[in-house]
Structure formats: C-alpha cells, structure tokens
Structures
1.
Amino acid sequence: MQRLRPVLLVLGVLCTLMGVLWIGQGRGLIHWPASSFMLDQRIWADYGAALAVAGLLMILLARRLRR
C-alpha cells in the first residue's frame, strides 16, 4: 500500500499533463507539424478532457491514502 501512493501520483500527473496537451491541440492552441495524425481534430479535446479528469481523480485518490 505504501508503494501505491507514489505510483498513483506519477500516473495522475502524467495523465493530467497529457490531457491538457490534447485539450490545447483540440482547441487549436498548439500547432502540430503538417504530418501529424492529430492535426485539426476536435475529438482530441474531448479525449484530453476525459484523460485530465482521470488524472486529477488519481491524484486525489493518492492524496487520500495513508502515508
């Protein structure tokens, strides 16, 4: 149980950052190269939002675990 907390925190932070990146790309705030598969796809903003929420939930769950 002691090793679960740092793992959840790391995974939560990575998921949240990846989700924010996908939201930025889906909204057009981040410009990818023309050869990118993520070019101008609004659906990535929805995926990013779900991933960011999942990451934040993992962080909150990790914070509630005892040290």
2.
Amino acid sequence: MSSFSLEISPEDLHRRLQAGDDIQLIDVREEMEFEYCHLPGSLLLPLDELPRRAAEIRTEGPVVVICHHGVRSAHALSYLRQRLGRTNVINLRGGVDAWAERVDPAFPTY
C-alpha cells in the first residue's frame, strides 16, 4: 500500500491484515450499520463527523477507509486527501459488501 494508491481490494487488505501489517481501519458508516457488522479493530467515525474528528485518524502509516459499498469512504478519502493533505489514506474498494462477497462469506450483509 504505497501512499500513491487510492484503493485497496478486499483481498489485498485481508492479506495485509493476516500478515500483521499495522493498518488503521476507519469505518465511516452510521453507528447502526457498524453495530450490525464491521471489520475487527475498526474505528467508527461516521462521515458527517469526519471534519471534527479527523484528528483521530493517524497521519503516519496506512489508513484504510471503509463503508458499505465504497462510496461514502471515497468521499471521506477525497476530504482527507484534498482538504487535509493526508496521503496515507486508502479506500476499501467495494466496502464491507465486497469484503463479505470476496473474503469472508460468513460476514453479515445488508
């Protein structure tokens, strides 16, 4: 995951997490969605709270932003990169839906 990459596939994220890579996971869905299902170790930071809670996202080391299908996380990525100059943030392509489909069939879907 270089600082130039904007997206990571569910398979690549899974491989990196299994390898023990130090990746901060930021979930920008709503609390109700997060409570239903989320990747272990994720920090819930709903998209509408991002501007006031951006300090909770580390500035060094890879950060993967997660949502349901990858749309809200893409908005978060854009905000973090363009407004705050964060180059260490990456979008999970397809969100938790793609994670369930391609990595963990037991992961809850909605």
3.
Amino acid sequence: MNLTQEDWIAQLEADENAVILDVRTEDECDEGIIPNAINIDIHKGQGFISELEELDKSKNYYVYCRSGARSAKACEIMNELGFDNAYNLLGGMLDWDGEVVAP
C-alpha cells in the first residue's frame, strides 16, 4: 500500500507493531537513514528474499528507498511472501523532510 509522507509518518507513529525497512544499497544508507530503520538491500536478489523470510510477519513494515520505486517493489515481494502489512513511502528519501540519522 502506497502512503504519502504525511500518512506514512502518522500511521507509523501510532503503530506499536512497526518496523521501518530501508531497501536501499549500503552506500545510499551511508548518506543517512530514517531513525531506527533496518537495511535490507533489494538488489541482493535471493539474499533479499532470504533476509525478508527471517522477519516477523506479524509486524507492520514501513518500507522506503530513494524515490519510492524499489520500496514499492519490495512491498509487492513482501505481500507475495505472506506479509500482510507493508507500506510504501511515496517519494522515498528524495521527498523526505523528516529526521535523518547516520546508520
């Protein structure tokens, strides 16, 4: 499900079962991440799938990348793997005006 930045933040802040997932490359993450995000690079292919399968499917995942394209794909993959709640941040880090921290 695609959410605007405002909706993504509002839903995230109200969600006690939330996990923030950054699907960018390590180099991109080195430029800064959304606080408390975990990084699983979608470009790892099967490695990405394997790491996703280790996650708790009962959690709600707030997924982002640089522009929103890779995270949308990640949400699709997560849905196929049985994750019920994966939320894509529209516009990704390019449009993000919230807090950014060093990984």
